[in-house]
């Protein structure tokens, strides 16, 4: 009996192997091939991952140069983030989270370009200087003539 059982187990094992190879071939033909190879990851420089997202200080909110610097800085950060995501995406193209991250960084850059095109006064200061009236720091009381 034990010889029959071991013979049946061997046949069963062969059939399982045949079935799995047929399934893999079918998946390859359908375009759903699963990659089981290990992919070595590149070491990402930690300095690239440091994203500075400090908000604009309240006293600089109406300062045009602060806004242009902030937009320029945000564009640089988005470009760095996109480079990181695209390099990782090349290594593992089947990772959907990297695909979403790549689309997200592309949308950030597109929004910044739209902002730059629709609000040119934010990004193009130009050479025109505006006159600024100084604030009266000393408080004087003016007496008006009453009739």
From TrEMBL:
Q: Which domain of life is it from?
A: Eukaryota
Q: What protein name applies here?
A: Pyruvate, phosphate dikinase regulatory protein, chloroplastic
Q: Which organism is this protein's natural source?
A: Tanacetum cinerariifolium
């Amino acid at each position: 009996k034990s010889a029959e059982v071991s013979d049946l187990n061997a046949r069963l094992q062969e059939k399982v192997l045949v079935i799995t190879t047929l399934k893999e071939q079918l998946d390859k033909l359908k375009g759903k091939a699963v990659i089981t190879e290990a992919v070595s990851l590149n070491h990402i420089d930690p300095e690239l991952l440091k994203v500075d997202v400090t908000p604009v200080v309240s006293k600089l909110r109406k300062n045009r140069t602060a806004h242009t610097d902030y937009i320029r800085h945000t564009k640089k950060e988005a470009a760095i983030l996109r480079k990181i995501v695209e390099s990782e995406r090349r290594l593992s193209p089947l990772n959907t989270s990297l695909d979403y991250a790549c689309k997200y960084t592309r949308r950030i850059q597109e929004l910044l370009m739209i902002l730059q095109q629709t609000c040119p006064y934010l990004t193009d200061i130009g050479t025109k200087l505006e006159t600024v009236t100084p604030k009266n720091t000393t408080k004087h009381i003016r007496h008006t003539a009453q009739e």
